[in-house]
Amino acid sequence: MRATIRSVAGEAGVSTATVSYVLSGRRGVQGGAGVSPATIRRVREAADRLGYQPNPAARAIRTGRTNTVLLSLTMLSDPWSLAVIEAVQRRAAPLGITPLILADADWAQVLQSHDADAVFIDAVPPDHREDLLRLAGRGTRLVVFSEVLEPAGFDVIRSLALPGCGLAMGHLLRSHTRIGCLTSGRGIDPQRPSRYLPYVEALAGAGLELREDYVESYEVLPASAYDAAVRLLSNPERPTAIYATTDFAAMSAINAAQRMGLTVGLDIDIIGVGNTVEGERMTPSLSSVGPAGFFDAVATLLLDRAKGEGGEPEVLEFPWQLFARESAPLRQGSGGGSHEQS
Question: At 12, phi and psi to the nearest 5?
Fold first, then answer.
């Protein structure tokens, strides 16, 4: 038979209220509310002997908290998503909060039946914006990554990518005239702004031709980005630099270049977009553009909301910077510009 608070109380010789208080996981129980250290110890020993396991659903009803946060991530294999997960996990563990990962699923549908203390959403399709308002209206704490939404009962993380992509192209143009592009298949749509657009504009601004054979597209899988990089690097007149519209595509390009016997940072320069932790840690380290301190700030805001802390919903904006590392280093005489090295 499953041990209950009542059976633990009988074993320890205390009231059920005392057991509930001691086993609630509240901070500052020691010596609080008139519960002596000896009683606390007796209750915990009784719970251990009986194999008592708390009922999460009952606790959620009692406290109004689930001690979980939900991370809705479009592409789980993307280093950007992995960096979000790592930052949240690192900060959640000491708080007793468990991150739950929702990978490329319909968060609006999941949240109809699942509660969490706070939810991070990395993409909001236009037809889901009303779902945000509905969820926020019922009290769900939402932190949404979006370049266009404004707070409406939920927090917005804003990080405008296109100016940062311009920094990446500006960096390559200081040393190169033959620059290839790896971009998502959806990114070449002229009807929508994308990270491909700064590539086109930067070439035009430098008086360089936009060559179709220097543009390769990939789908949202690392293997597809790798194959696209191989095609680009197999060009008879190989580009001397690659601008990749995501860090995961840039990392795939580094792997492809090395497999083909090229020295990255010497035979070919490669730069990505996102400034992910995985890109910084790889060898050679990935040059990239992105916001500084982004992932830690997202994790801090999300967990503050999960704890019920903070004021009114807000916008957190992160300006982008250039991080010139080994895969596309700064070269003497290549000019100035806003950058950081790490």
Answer: -90, -15
